[in-house]
Amino acid sequence: MREGYAREFRKYAASNVLGMLGLSCYILADTYFVSKGLGTRGLAALNLAIPIYNVIHGCGLMLGMGGATKYSVYQAQGDRRGERMFANTLGIVAVLGVAFMMAGFFFAGDLARLFGGRGIVLGMTETYLQVMLLFSPVYLLNDVLVCFVRNDGNPRLSMISMLAGSFTNIVLDYVFIFPMHLGMFGAVLATGCAPIAGILVSLAHFFRGRNRFFWFGAMPKFGISWNTLVLGIPSLVTEVSSGIVIIAFNMLILDIAGNVGVAAYGVVANISLVVVAVFTGVAQGMQPIVSHAGAAGEMAGARRVFRYGVVTVLAMSIIIYVLVFFGKDALVSVFNSEGNAGLATMAGRGLRLYFSGISFMGINIVLSMYFAALERALPAQAVSLLRGIVLVLPMAFALSFLMGITGVWLAVPVAELLVTAIGARLYCNLGINAENPRLISNCGKK
Hints:
Elements: H1 2-76, H2 85-114, H3 119-134, H4 136-151, H5 155-177, H6 183-202, H7 204-207, H8 222-295, H9 299-334, H10 341-354, H11 358-373, H12 377-390, H13 392-403, H14 405-429
Helix pairs in contact: 1-2, 1-3, 1-4, 1-5, 1-6, 1-8, 1-9, 2-3, 2-4, 3-6, 4-5, 4-6, 5-6, 8-9, 8-10, 8-11, 8-12, 8-13, 9-10, 9-11, 10-14, 11-12, 11-14, 12-14, 13-14
């Protein structure tokens, strides 16, 4: 059975990491083409607007991961309610999608000012926010489809869906920004069209008749919806906290180093999105296997898969940090089309310091998903909230006061280290759940 878990983990994790890498290219492609076409001011505007992407994508993952996790548990238990999870989740997607669109119609300018937009940068930021919010329903639907298709035994199609969206985004970015000269509007329009391509690919799961979940009866039911939201909150917190941190860091850096500093942080933040996507890919690839094992009472198998996830992110973190440390100048130059010396210096130093805590970041993401996959919502939310907001924001303000921009770069590594220590204790101290004795994860238990 051990080899079976290892084989399943490799299949799901590899497909999902590739797919998440493709998904993260949404933002990287924007960053590259905006830096080439619109320079430092465009890059600053993009970084000010990125938090809204985190919020939308976080909500999509909350619904997708929460609904798909419950779907996997129901399927493993032979419960027919699993068939209705997708339809119920679609109802919540519709409600959230309308809310986001209304925000785009009426509050895009207010949000741009709130996020720190000034002068010409303000107009660019407002354009990006408005179009992104108007496309929010397709983002949400794409995230939900990807999660359910993966949990329905088709990780390969899920991966292809995410890669199709990324490829569409890259091609349209070039076309809209350069031949068509649409500027920031072109960049965000390309990003908005990308999930449509992903949705079209995911629909193949239905056309081939391989689906075990259905569209009908989409009116949300409170009990099922609450379970979906609770189990998906760690995924939401991971994404939304990234947006909140970006907003806070932007404001701190604006006071310390101005728009050039914000552009430098934009480089660091966008590369960080790719790294988080890789770790999230490992965690999401682990989730269906852990959920099935936990629901079937195979806790030894669930813990084994968790260890596979931790070892994988640790190996990846070493490789990534070596690449960042020695290749920082090349990485920064890709997004520094104007050859701004100040941007190059700040971003290069920021990459080395910010990513010094990369291994702790990977462990925390995997640990939070492990708890959620076993329907242990409280510890999952605790890890996500601690690493996302509760610790990192006080660290950022305190360390920036003491050390300037160096403190901003070090806030994330310090916070991730502390969360890893707390998360390890949560993992070790979890006892038998009184309502479900099968869900055990005591340290040292084989």
